[in-house]
Amino acid sequence: MLKTNNNSIKYLSLVVLTVQNAALGLSMRYARTRSIEMFSAAAAVLMAEVIKLIVCVVLVILESGSTRKGLQSIKATVVDQPYDTLKICVPSLLYIAQNNLLYISASNLDAATYQVTYQLKILTTAFFAVFVLGRVLKKWQWFALGLLALGVALVQLSSNSTPTVSTNMQEQSKVIGFSAALTACFISGFAGIYFEKMLKGSDISVWMRNVQLSLLSLPFGAITYMLSSGSSSRLLAGFDAFVWYLVVLQAGGGLIVAVVVKYADNILKGFATSLAIVISCVASMYIFDFILTAQFSLGTCLVISSIFLYGYEPKKSENIHSSLKV
After folding, report:
1. 45: closest CA among 86, 99, 121?
2. Residue whose C-alpha is closest to residue 129's, from 305, 265, 252, 278
3. Angle, nearest 10°, between helix axes 206-229 and 241-263?
4. What is the mean pLDDT of residues 54-81?
5. Around Cβ 65, how many Cβ atoms within 10 Å?
6. Would the pTM count as exceeding 0.90?
7. HSE toward the beta carbon, residue 202, CA cutoff 13 A
8. 55-to-60, 208, 246, 254, 323 alpha-carbon distances in Å
9. Cβ neighbours of 285 (radius 10 Å)
10. How far, in Å, CA of 73 to CA of 82, rounded?
11. Are residues 174 and 161 in contact, defined by beta-carbon separation less than 8 angstroms?
12. Are 303 and 147 in contact, with CB atoms under 8 Å apart?
């Protein structure tokens, strides 16, 4: 019964994460190309961490049964175990850097290209899973990762290399956009595996880990904002209802990822997320007048095909291995 419930949580969270990722990519692109006062990306990332922290504290309190027990639990885990808390500094810093890079990428790439390119995090996650966690991938899984890389390459080559002009930004560079996305992929791969190892290697709840993560992310986020915007600018300048929706959407994605990492494989999370490119491509055609070329379509099909190839598990082979073990 418990296994069934865990599987239900796993696949439900994967579906929700897919939809959230598609909405986030489209929303980030729209928010960064509107002809109104532009908000600070670093401020949006910082506010998302504040919201995550508040939500996770509430969830820890609910999990503990009372406010007093919840706060005592937070103190015992966060304050009384400084060494364990300090280990979270690594993914805290990396996630702040990653989220800021994603805004740079979304500002320079159309939503569909951004969504496909960012799926390279699956490849980097697999790389770190093998070398950090010692995970063994099957031959067809390596082939699936090769298909993924080829698909993303086709998508990038299909886009025009000349800079485009936006109503709100003087110039957009696809080179900068791709470089930011690629760097974010490597950061995402390492941070995801590091956080997965910490989650699955202890009895601390996923919400408590996220309290640690968000709490330590705040100073990194504040420093990033001050370095990028300066002390004279207003923190919430350019924030309207849509930007707040974007902030909440980004914060929600972090919480969904936490659930997925707890109940599912990190690489499986990445492959399920890549399904969001289908939604992004279709929506971009109507919202941003995105032109779907044959080369882009081929690249997208390769990425989607790699999803199903990676998840393939031959039952006969499993049965043979099981009988050999017995």
Report:
1. 99
2. 265
3. 140
4. 90
5. 10
6. no
7. 16
8. 9, 11, 16, 11, 47
9. 13
10. 14
11. yes
12. yes
Q: What is the pLDDT of residues 213-258, one digit of tens each?
A: 899 999 999 999 998 877 657 888 889 999 999 999 988 876 777 6
**Token duo for residue 53:** 């922290």
Per-residue pLDDT at 173: 81
Asked whether the predicted pLDDT for residue 8 surpasses 90, the reply is no
Q: What are the tokens at 200?
A: 């699955």
Q: Say what the alpha-carbon torsion angle 226, 26, 129, 210 is, to the nearest 10 degrees.
A: 50
Q: If you ran DSSP here, which 8-state letter would residue 75 be given?
A: I
CA angle 19/23/28 to nearest 5° reads 150
- Alpha-carbon distance of 182 to 188, in angstroms, equals 10
Given the structure tokens 């698909």, which residue do they identify?
Answer: 151
SS3 assignment, position 102: helix
In terms of Cα–Cα distance, which of 59, 42, 47, 49 is closest to 92?
49
DSSP string of 116-183, one letter each residue: HHGGGHHHHHHHHHHHHS-----HHHHHHHHHHHHHHHHHHHHS--S-B--SSSS-B-HHHHHHHHHH
Q: What angle do CA 221, 107, 100 make, to 5 degrees?
A: 15
The tens digit of pLDDT for each residue in 31-47 reads 988 888 889 999 999 99
- A 10 A CB-CB count for 181 gives 28
The dihedrals phi and psi of 60, each to the nearest 5 degrees, come to -65, -40
DSSP-H helix ranges across the chain: 2-32, 41-64, 67-74, 82-86, 89-108, 111-117, 121-132, 139-158, 174-200, 206-229, 241-263, 266-273, 276-287, 294-310, 315-325
